[in-house]
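Retro notes - structure team

What went well: the batch runner handled both jobs without manual restarts.
What didn't: labels got mixed up in the shared folder, which is why I'm recording both outputs here explicitly, each with its sequence directly above its tokens.

Job 1
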Amino acid sequence: MNRDIFLEITENFRIASKTMKMVLHGDTRLITAPGQFVNLKLEGKYLRRPISVGDYDSSESGSLTLFYDIVGEGTAKMSKMRPGEKIQILMGLGNGFDTHMDCKKPALIGGGIGCAPMLALAKHLNVEGKKPVAFLGFNTRKDVVLFEELTKLGVETIISTVDGTEGVKGFVTDAYNSYCTQHPDEIDYFYACGPMPMLKALSDTMKIDGELSLDERMACGFGICMCCSVRTKDGARRICKDGPIFRKEDLIWK
């Protein structure tokens, strides 16, 4: 069951041009799968803020790592919080990526802050004996995150930037297609999280099965406002409540 828990901030610092890393400690047992999200209650704010979980150690005295972009008043307030402060978190939200799929070399495809859940996902896939390849896309080299963390896990990690200042010039889909041209038929599944145009492009063009996290549209975090509605083969679904992760073959794009 989802419930509110107070976690203590142990780290909160900038890691890229607009991206922050927040590490919290406390009871994290309700986080059970990579790709889930949490809902933060900030003092003085009426609406909670849904944030994807970047990494976690699920235990009674575990850790929770969040990566977030400073894009508005709420995240700006988060960025000013200091170690020792506690934050109220509703956790155990959403479904997670299925790490038990029958695959050997899956692709982890992340765009911008959508790269966040790829860290925990890579760790779980390693435990499953799989050998993922990560493709991370950003606007410029100043926006790049998680490259060092993933390479330390032994994950081959390919960066793309729109302006060409780091890695492959272009979108993350360009980096993925270039890799597949050089290594045909190696990638046998994919996991993706990022901006909706990127996810739609992947859904339209990928010839293999995969899962897409639509966390960009988690909206209120509860699925109540219906702003996160998405069409599937089983009818309309709410990203906050029924996702954020959906199988590629189940989504219907307008």
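Job 2
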Amino acid sequence: MNQHELIAEVFERQAKRRVERRAFLKFAGMSTAVAGAAAVSACGGGGGDGDGFGVDNNVNVAPPQTGLSDADILNFALNLEYLEAQFYSFAVTGAGLPNTLLTGTGTQGAVTGGRAVAFTDQVVRQYANEIAADERAHVAFLRTALGSAAVAQPAINISSDANGPFSAAARAAGLVGAGQSFDPYASDENFLLGAYIFEDVGVTAYKGASPLIQSPTFLSAAAGILGAEAYHAGLIRTVLYGKGIAMPALIDATEAISDARDSLDNTADVDQGVRRMGDASNIVPADANGLAFSRSAGDVLNIVYLNAGAVNQGGFFPAGVNGTIRASTAG
């Protein structure tokens, strides 16, 4: 049995297809979610289709005063960029970022795990190389923009062992059983699923944070990174859907991961896999108006900490993130 067949068998056995739970939400339901999201605080539960940091999608509504500076918001983003950049760097080169890109305020941590993927699909290899370069550039850019205020890389766990965060996330999604491991470096398909966890979350995080940024220069920078992350997420979703035509269990896995993220971030049910009703593609997870949804900082930390409670560390950040925004919110 080759690697593709093995992964398909595992996913078909472990990831039970959800019965069309990801059908488009009705507009009335979306409106309710927007109304609820507009009332949350900067680090509270985002949910629904508000911007997730406490502002709804009405462009005429000014962002509330949150007590967060532009540097606080960009440093929160920098923590996420460290995580993504390290994952992709190890996947394509077998090594992490240089130490010159890791220093700063707060406690600098090491990376646990990570190794090169033996790509068999040359298209996936080239895409991975391009995204890795972009993520490294994001880290360098944010560090330059923040100057001496830039936070150091916190401790990051991207290991593939049974006790690591990828395996914990896969168990939460029902992809592997108790005591089993999920290795995002084992194959092209596993790598894509690992990337799928990060990219969708990154897009919603930048979408939620952007309305709070006061400096036009920093806002332009955040918008530029949001655009790049959206391209990455769309690409990963496209490749997963394309491969899933011949390997349906791969599409089922995106649904299962989506359900797991929904169980962690907040009480709203807006996360979406790569399939709509029937077998239609769902490359852009959006609301009834075709708009990308948002997550608050707390929601994002719920996912990367792999904990639906209000905590300060865990999952991919075993000692927490650096900076002012550190705590997740009860989902």
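One thing worth noting from job 2: The first helix runs from residue 3 to 14.
We'll revisit the folder naming next retro.
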